[in-house]
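Narrative summary of target 7.
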Amino acid sequence: MNSTLQPETTRLPRRPRHGELLLALVSLMFVQSCLSPENQIHRVALNALFFLVVLSAIRSLTGSAARMWGTLLAGVSAYAASWANEITGTAWLAIVSDSCFALVFVFLIYAVGENVFGEGPIDANRIIGAVSIYFLLGLLWAFLYTLAALVQPGAFLFPVENAESTENTRLLSEFIYFSNVTLTTLGYGDVVPLSRPAKMLAVLQAMLGQLYLAVVVARMVGLQVSQKSTEESA
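Modeled conformation, tokenized:
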């Protein structure tokens, strides 16, 4: 009896799409600048925007169920802690919320980095992922700066009156600006780190920002050369 052997087809894992994540990050950057930390509704909206980024991140974490659920758990915990802090004004809840959000961005940077710097052809999705990582680094450090200021009040000098307030949302809004200025090494000098941990965080971010750009350009060029050689030899 003759049997027809059907060729086995192997499904390649679906590569995550990073466009939605980048859109959420860019929207967060612009919208948060229009929100006032003194307005309770605006503070709630800002927390909701961060949680929206967490939900957008889930698509980039589909390759690992453990990281996906870990990120979702950290995001829900951060959002719940931020709500509890809004109601009670307890400082340690702000620390818990910011720590969970920072953990979300660490997971996300790692997941997107696997796709951006892994093997495969260069395409628009990979470039969008590389840009998303740059935005994520800025937001991650914003939370790290906020944590440093909450744990050690007076770690930063602000130019605005009453900016020494330890209100979490106000600090985060200030540090999103300061983080991106430091990441791009603009160094306006209007926000100044005073404590040693704050200074080291700023130095590390400035170095990382420069190294990241150099690594991304080198990696993309290397992948493009490899891709072109493969196409020519085919």
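Residues 196-233 form the longest helix (38 residues).
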